[in-house]
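Lab manual, section 2.4: Encoding a predicted structure.

Procedure: take the sequence of the chain (303 residues), apply the prediction step described in section 2.3, and record the output as structure tokens. A sample record is shown.
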Amino acid sequence: MLTRRRLLQIATSLLALPSSRLLNASESALINRPVPASGELIPVIGMGSSRTFDVDSSTQSLAQLTEIMKIFFDHKGAVVDSSPMYGSAEARIGDVLRSMTQQPKIFAATKVWTDGRERGIEQMQTSARRMNVERFDLIAVHNLRDWKTHLTTLKRWKAEGKVRYIGITTSHGRYHDELREIMRNEPLDFVQFSYNIDNLTAEKYLLPLAADRGIATMINRPYQRGQLFRASRGKPLPALATDIDCTSWGQFYLKFILGHPAVTCIIPATSKAKHMMDNMQANLGRIPDSTQRVEMLKIFRDF
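Recorded output:
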């Protein structure tokens, strides 16, 4: 496991990488962050599937999702996150992956969201079939549901090589106190929670604790379910956006999150190809330093 000191050294060096313009995906400027448990580097912009992939299996739906995932992989995306809670999302991801003639390099992540040991095992096996995954890179307990039971299973599966990383997630602030206790006492590789420029709660305890414990962080709801775009609608991008290689508000909001060195990966979800293209540009170029993040926060709060 990487030590906290080494993790922060790596994160600081990544933040300091220079760039004078917005780079193309074909150029070798992909922003990666290390998974503390192993040192493995993963791209910082992943893909969520909540709501956006919960669609039918019609030709039209699959064509739309295929275009989205093709853009994601063509721009060197890797982390794909889903859950049984997301309706048909796992199945649609699997449908698209099976249809691809050349299988992309994927960091496959899902969750277990049920009660009981046997139901949990059955659900995770079903998720693998649905997503066309032989072995998940990450399985996390979703929203702390029956977490003691499922973490016991996941720890055994990891020891047996059935899953590479294990974790726990929440998207609800009311679970933060319990989540912190789990982070302090369980051998987690990943933790997932909400964090964005309008919801800084995670900065108080969760992000520092993750850094202290050597736990990778996966950030959901980076756009506060669209609320951030409503706040900035019609507003011109500030001059600061150029300094951090942003050409849209979406990239601005993602880069703000990436400016925190304890953030490992962000998983924005979208059902539109143009939005996926925009998200992936945040995987390139400069990242704001602490002074620039203060300025970004002020800009947002002055709307």
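Check your result against the sample. The radius of gyration is 18 Å.
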